[in-house]
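Reopening: V-type proton ATPase subunit F still failing for me.
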Amino acid sequence: MSVYQKDRSLIAVIGDEDTVTGLLLAGIGHVDSKQKANFLVVDSKTTLPTIEESFIEFTRRKDIGIILINQHVADDIRSMLDEYHQAFPTVLEIPSKDHPYDPAKDSILKRVQKLFGDDQR
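Support: Ran it again with your exact input. Result attached.
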């Protein structure tokens, strides 16, 4: 395992309260020495710039290997996700309790389908 991979030991999450709470209870929560958390709870009062800033911050952090984002939240920043092409941290869209997963919207799945010539959408 390279030093680069070893340093990326955290999972970040951007999602609704139920999703974030569940993942925090599972043990992914972390607050670093600069009081920066690896999670963002998105509700009706969360502004779009706040979501965008958190996504940018999480993608720039060297300790995060995976970013989980509720698909309905990802829809709000879809253009940013479509432009994001880095391997690390990997961004995965996940369903939430109130919003089912739609594979037709998933940026990574679209990229994989295009790569394998199965882009029929």
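The radius of gyration is 15 Å. If you still see a failure, please send the error message rather than a screenshot.
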